[in-house]
Protein: 4Fe-4S ferredoxin
Amino acid sequence: MKKIASPAALSGRAERIAQRDRSDAWKKPPRRIEKSECITCDTCLRSCPAEFGAIFDRGLDVVIIPELCSGCPACVLECPVDCIYVDEDWTPTDDAMWNHIELTAKGA
Structure:
């Protein structure tokens, strides 16, 4: 069952969305989903803690936004096909995805 984040934690997420940047306090690298192994079951999306909300379903694939991912193992522990890996060499999220995230966040 997904925990509900505190208002302060959610405001931290909103700030990361506005800044489009990872928290400097996070020491672990973000995670990534290997598209060729993913079955798009959305289990990872449902298991990602609300204060991070780093996983999005884009229709044909599920993606982890590295700037929102703290590197915690919550999604990894729930993935039925083990397709989530540490992403040491992550690249910044593109503007089109950020625009989608901002629209989604405003509806929440």
